[in-house]
Amino acid sequence: MNNFHQEITTQIKKYCQNTIEPHIETDDEQSIFKKEIYQGLGELGLAGLTIDEAYGGANLDYQSFCPVLATIAQYSVSYAVTLSVSVMAQSIIESFGNDEQKKTYLPELTSGKEIAAFALSESHSGSDAAALKTTAKKTDKGYILNGSKMWITSGGVAKTYIVMARTGEDGAKGISAFIVQDGTPGFSYGKKEKKMGWKVSPTRELIFENCLIPKENILAEEGKGFKIALDALNRGRVTIGAVALGLSDRALEVAVKYALDRKQFEQPIYDFQGLQFMIADCATEIEASRYLVNQAAINFDAGKIDRKLAAMAKLKATDTAMKVTTDAVQILGGVGYTSEYPTERFMRDAKVLQIVEGTNQIQKVIIGREIKKQYS
Ligand SMILES: Cc1cc2nc3c(=O)[nH]c(=O)nc-3n(C[C@H](O)[C@H](O)[C@H](O)COP(=O)(O)OP(=O)(O)OC[C@H]3O[C@@H](n4cnc5c(N)ncnc54)[C@H](O)[C@@H]3O)c2cc1C
């Protein structure tokens, strides 16, 4: 970690300790998202960290963004994923948008005033995303969207949505990407999902009923939508890995401190070898994840599109988060399972990391495919 990383980490910790930590258990229980907390992260300069300064971003790399996400995730995975997804959507506009689109949409997102979301999944097409059915029909007045998107992170609180819809043939080549703004007639929200974890982060269905959007809102050109989505997911996998790392670090910290303090059989439970082995395994898995996430970020910053490594980083870091948070509950025993300690929340928040941005089975599909290419 360089001086910049250390300084920003200290600032984020202070901010999260003052704003998120005191209310996180009640906000989690009541599923309350506070936009002002996100906006505060924006005021720290974090909401458009990797985006060009010309559009209000900080022009930093993924090696800087990952530790930022990991630090926020130590306090709230929900706010960390809100940021991760918003920056992913901004990166799409930055990479595939034209000048006008970048000038119109990016500044209020990089400042953190507004949030962006990424809408690919549909009820019948999650892993098989290229089977999506939402349509965008070209007319003289613009594109007319019909269909719905499921499980959209920041649905209802975001202003700008990157929506993948079908403009042509079946399969990946018939998909295009559009920018859709909250408040567009014909665009509404379905129910807010009741979830096991990520309770502070709203997840909603997006509904499009004859929703007319200007033809200028297409990103790149017709048929490029699936490529745009995959490019974004390659970034998203690295950043979800970073979120998982932050969560694992915090869960282990809570477990170790508790184990050093808690006595049974007249000795700290930490001194039982059975627990030390669990802790040693967790710490080792976390370090292995850290190396993978860091290397994936380094490759990304160097412009190397390494799908295999990005998938490995996501797979390893999120499986590790699941293991470490589960073991943290175990190490705390009864209180670990109650909301007196945050470990039960950590465990609930870890689970969905194995599902989003491509399930961990899909990461293995990608890794397997890349290995086959390497040897064929
Ligand atoms: C809290 C939350 C937030 C989300 N946020 C977003 C968002 O912001 N934007 C968005 O577009 N989507 C979002 N999603 C959707 C998420 O990306 C999908 O849930 C995910 O891609 C899996 O799709 P599915 O749920 O349809 O499961 P399915 O694809 O039906 O998979 C079910 C099971 O089958 C397995 N499976 C499927 N295909 C294969 C295969 N080829 N090989 C082996 N196993 C396979 C899966 O791994 C899984 O275990 C979110 C989901 C949740 C729960």
Question: Topology, please?
Answer:
Layout: H1 3-19, H2 24-30, H3 35-43, H4 62-75, H5 77-96, H6 99-110, E1 116-119, E2 135-138, E3 143-153, E4 160-166, E5 175-181, E6 187-192, E7 203-213, E8 218-219, H7 225-261, E9 263-264, E10 267-268, H8 273-301, H9 307-332, H10 343-351, H11 360-375
Helix pairs in contact: 1-4, 4-5, 4-7, 5-6, 5-7, 7-8, 7-9, 8-9, 9-10, 9-11
The structure holds flavin-adenine dinucleotide.
Residues 85, 117-121, 126-127, 151-153, 195, 198, 203, 352, 355-356, 358-359, 361-362, 365 line the site of flavin-adenine dinucleotide.
Question: What does this entry look like structurally?
Answer:
The protein is an alpha+beta fold. The chain has 3 domains: 3-114, Acyl-CoA dehydrogenase/oxidase, N-terminal domain (Butyryl-Coa Dehydrogenase, subunit A, domain 1, Orthogonal Bundle); 117-223, Butyryl-CoA Dehydrogenase, subunit A, domain 2 (Beta Barrel), CATH 2.40.110.10; 227-375, Butyryl-CoA Dehydrogenase, subunit A, domain 3 (Up-down Bundle), CATH 1.20.140.10. It is 52% helix and 15% strand. The strands form 3 sheets. The protein has a 4-stranded mixed sheet with strand order 1-4-5-8. The longest helix has 37 residues, at 225-261. The structure holds flavin-adenine dinucleotide (FAD).
